[in-house]
Each structure stands twice: as structure tokens, then as C-alpha cells.
Amino acid sequence: xxxASAAIKKTATKNTVTIEQIGSPIGRPAYQRQTLIxxxxxxxxxTSTLEDTPAVRGMIKRVHHLVRIIEA
Length: 72
Fold this sequence. Notes:
Blueprint: H1 2-12, E1 16-21, H2 30-38, E2 47-51, H3 54-62, E3 67-70
Antiparallel strand pairs: 1-2, 1-3
């Protein structure tokens, strides 16, 4: 029971990042389109809230010209 409550506390305190797609993937390299899909984005002006991890930050950096970070 103690492990379950510790896991809940950990997930409740994790930071999130909200991003919005502002650019179109049309005419972009395939890796950029796949990165947007990995960020749960596929159309302009859609938003996605993800865990703030180094992997997600790296994906955002890779397509920084196509997304915008929304301040919470």
C-alpha cells in the first residue's frame, strides 16, 4: 500500500509542458513530420500537454520552428 501512495505522489508532482503546433508539416522532411506525430500533433493550432522530460524537450527542440510552448 505504501508503494502505491508513493507512486501517486510522484505522478502528481510531475511537471507538464503544453505545446501548440503553429507550422505545417507539408514540405518538411519525414523526421519532422514523425516528431510532430510523436508529440501528439498533426494539424495546425492543435495543442498537446505532455510530461516535461528531457526526451520531450529534445523533440520540441527538433521542431522548434513548427511549435510554440504555451506558458501555464
